[in-house]
Amino acid sequence: MKSLKLNMLMMVSFSLLFLWALTGYVLLNQDMMDASSSPKPADTVKVLVRTGTESAALRQIALPFEKETGVKVEFIEVARDSYFTAVGTQLFAGSNTFDVVLMPSTSIAQFASAKAIIPLDSYLEASGDTTKGGLDIDDFFSVYRYNGSIYALPTDISTHFLYYRKDLIPTPPETWDELYEMASHYSSHVQKDSPTRWGLAMPAVVPEEREKIFDSILWSFGGDIMGDDGQVQFDSKESIRSGEYLESLVRDQLVPSDLMSWDFSRTRDGLLNGDIAMAAPYWNSAYPAIKMSHSSIKNNIAIALIPGIRDQSGTVHRMPFQHGWTLAINASSTNPAGAWRFLEFATGKEGGMIYARNGGIPARRSILSSPAFRDREDFALILESMKMAKSEPSLIYYPAMVSVEEDALAKIMTLFASPADAFQEAAVQLRNLSAHISIQSVKRSEESP
Questions:
Q1: Residues 216 and 273 in one domain
Q2: By residue range, what is the domain housing residue 341?
Q3: Is 411 found in the same domain as 277?
Q4: How many domains does the chain have?
Q5: Which CATH number do you get for residue 37?
Q6: Which domain of life is it from (predicted)?
Q7: 227/257 same-domain check
Q8: Best label site of 124, 223, 227, 232, fewest CB within 10 Å?
Q9: Bigger pLDDT: 444 or 47?
Q10: 25, 43, 100, 355 from 74: Cα distances, Å
Q11: What is the per-residue pLDDT across 279-309, written as a single tens digit (0 to 9) for each?
């Protein structure tokens, strides 16, 4: 039975490769397909991006870059729902249809281990920007490494906030227990005269949204998926306590009964139409969209640090989730030098300022704290959140890890299994998966010439 479950996990982790290989080219537009069969001039850089705020902001960087360097930028834009399939297909197939690729930081280990993207260390050293000056990598919240080498630089940073109705809640809750009490007060199932239907909501769809959102709760309780030493901690008492907290929100109907179908947009709309009193954990990127909306209550929606756990000294321990959207260079690029020039400009301070002015959330301390954005309340809160924020583990089997965690959370949110049973089963699966990957890695190393 255990062998069957392990095989299923391995299929989850690696069957995407087959799916990418089978369907990816259909998902990309025909112009991109045609480009692969003809050489592109050395003065053109092609950038693969997904539709959304990130691509819109990156496009505004192109014209200043072209004026400064004489290098033309062409964007290949793919819809959000098919983007990850398209990226995987092209990178693993060795396609040269693009030079630079936008990807989340959680994908770096997968593509770097497969040599589908290239290390940037030599470019950084040649430019002399490894510490101060043009790039000033110390100014980034994070750079993304695999086996000691830098493979991607961030354009965008994402973390979690608490959103709340300040007309109903003058002081935001600081702890998860306080949030629970507040959510109970503003849930119509508990308080019949509540002005909102639910006290709380959060995105909980898959893939990935559910576990990313839950991680801010998991880590705040002192739990984890894996420790820094690589040991699975998903069945620790602290992790199980965080699962029990989630279970209580669902069981006591303080969150929507169909929460697992709530995504980013539905959570935002729930705030704007007055259905929910709070959203947490919820993405920082929702704040500008809320403030630019036409909702009559948009000015009553405020943001604060996510709640945490108060210790005996009275200190509240918070640990919000964070990850970055990054730019990396395709290992099959026919113009890696031009790709680096664009990557260097786009992630640099000049490019970052342009990115921020056009709706992006730059991953640089200096820009988020710039006087030019002193009216951006969300920028100030990102800076505060990032002092305590944490990233997911960087693993070559990251999709399988996500699948295991999401499955455990689904069992809790449907009240199908207790948190202890769900997390203990998930921990066994993660340990078996980790051991299997380690064994296979050793075998491949031994077989290498």
A1: yes
A2: 19-157+324-386
A3: yes
A4: 2
A5: 3.40.190.10
A6: Bacteria
A7: yes
A8: 227
A9: 47
A10: 19, 11, 10, 17
A11: 999 999 999 999 999 999 999 999 999 999 9
